[in-house]
Amino acid sequence: MERQARWTDRYVVGWHDSDFRGKVHPASVCRFLMETAGNHAGHLQFGYQEAVQRKEIWVIVQLIVKLNTWPAYTDEILIETWPMGAEGFYAFREFRILDAGRKEAGAASSRWMVINAETRKPQPMEIIRHSMHLII
Predict the structure, then answer these.
(1) How many other CB atoms are there within 10 angstroms of residue 116's CB atom?
(2) pTM of the full predicted structure?
(3) Are 63 and 112 in contact (CB under 8 A)?
(4) What is the pLDDT of residues 102-128, one digit of tens each?
(5) Which end of the chain is more exposed for a tag (fewer CB within 10 A), N or C?
(6) Is the dihedral of CA 122, 36, 98, 71 positive or negative?
(7) Predicted confidence (pLDDT) at residue 134 exceeds the cutoff of 90
(8) 3-class SS of residue 99
(9) Average pLDDT over the chain, rounded to an integer
(10) Sequence-ordered strand ranges (E) for 3-55
(11) Handedness of CA 100, 101, 105, 106 (dihedral sign)
């Protein structure tokens, strides 16, 4: 299977994803982003399973989310993501949040680290080296 440099997942805002106004809860947006990032990293063969085999853990260090519009209960949203490379102990990933009509509802940027599962010490970004050609 050919690896995709960009990845998109579809979500429907459920009642459990909504606040008292019926708008998507910020925690749900973050969960959608993390799930999509994990799906794409797995597809690129540097996700959870690959990290566990290396006795490593992915840790999100920073997540900046900006919403232009707040999706509501039953709305369909698309989360598009792509890695933006790595520098030192950090890997970077970007996101677009789209409504069902593919109009941009928001965006997000994230910074990640890999730590050793036993020592909890930061690890170099060796886990993504084999997919670097897709990141640049």
Answers:
(1) 13
(2) 0.92
(3) no
(4) 999 999 999 999 999 999 999 998 888
(5) N
(6) negative
(7) no
(8) strand
(9) 93
(10) 7-12
(11) positive
